[in-house]
Amino acid sequence: MRDVSLNSIPTIATDLAWLDDPVIAAGLVTLQAGALRAVLAPNVGGALAAFYEITPDGPLHWLRPAVPEAFVERDPLKMASFPLFPYCNRIRDARFEFDGATVDLTGNDLRFAHALHGNAWRHPWQVGARTESAVELQFEHQPDAGVPGDWPFRYRAQQRVELRDGALHITMSAQNLSSRPMPFGMGHHPYYPRTAQTRVHANVQAMWHADADVLPTHLGPHPAVDALRDGMSADAFDLDNNFANWSREAVIAWPDEHRQLTMTAEAPFDHMVVFAPANDPQLCVEPVTNTTDSFNAAGQREQVGGCVLQPGEEIAATLTWTPLRAS
After folding, report:
1. C-beta of residue 145 within 8 angstroms of C-beta of residue 126
2. Residue 23: how many CA atoms within 13 Å on its side-chain side?
3. Which domain of life does the UniProt lineage start with (predicted)?
4. Which of 14, 22, 68, 247 lies at a C-alpha separation of 20 to 30 Å from 310?
């Protein structure tokens, strides 16, 4: 595992070199408030490309910054974070039953055996109102019966991204524009810098165990539940799991670097995903409104999450990431 100390964090000349590329920069929105910066890539799934702090030694990254290929390939998976609409994580075999009919999402992305992360992350977003420290992004989905696996419900998704009070705030909202009810879930998919000393703190009640396809099998105890409460090492387990009934607050800490990032969420972000694969530099702690495969999952609503939006109904909630450095 690569161990990055505070003194060895790459400078802006290397890890953010894409900011100096005029072609890439033309499609970016940079927000600033004091020393904090947030860079948005609306054309790449409405993703967040970087969230960092200006320091005398260069940028101090609170999220893993995008790599140059992310812009060329238009791949949100290589960004700092990206929005999940109208559901989070996987749907088994890309299909589910809803309102007496089968919703077949087969073919919506041939890279994956199961439908993944909805569809908003695969499309460009429109830039709306903007100030120096805030921007509104919008995506509207119009179903196309000629596109295999297209989401069959019309909806509008929005993100208001703002740097305020020393923190990053993202308000996510959606409205069902269909004439019929629509199953729904949303979330954000942040990647954090991962070192040998990284710790994740969260109060959770249980973990969804998963099969080889990373699809949930049952909700129950796991050593990670207690470890998270005490401050779990990112290397402690091989995780790609949902955790139920968290306190809607998690802390990602780098004790050797004397800093931490607190993520808080409003209801209905009542579920949390931890992606911390073994022998891998990736680390995600994701606030979501539904478990993986929630449209197929058997269980009570508070266990699986998600909801059904009636025609015209809207939903909105805010996520906040607050950095803290020891003086």
Report:
1. no
2. 3
3. Bacteria
4. 247
Q: Which residues contact 56 (CB under 8 A, 6 or more apart)?
A: none
Question: Structure tokens of 81?
Answer: 């974070």
* Whole-angstrom distance, CA of residue 51 vs CA of residue 25: 16
Q: What does the alpha-carbon distance between residue 188 and residue 81 come to, in Å, rounded to a whole number? A: 7
Return the closest-CA partner of residue 192 out of 287, 53, 59, 61: 61
Alpha carbons 309 and 110: distance in angstroms, whole number: 28
Residue 268: DSSP 8-state: T
pLDDT band at 300 (very low <50, low <70, confident <90, very high): low
The pTM for the full model equals: 0.93
Instruction: Tell me which amino acid residue 33 is.
Output: A
44-72 pLDDT, tens digit each: 999 999 999 999 999 999 999 999 999 99
Whole-number Cα distances in Å, 9 to 149, 187, 213, 230: 42, 29, 35, 27
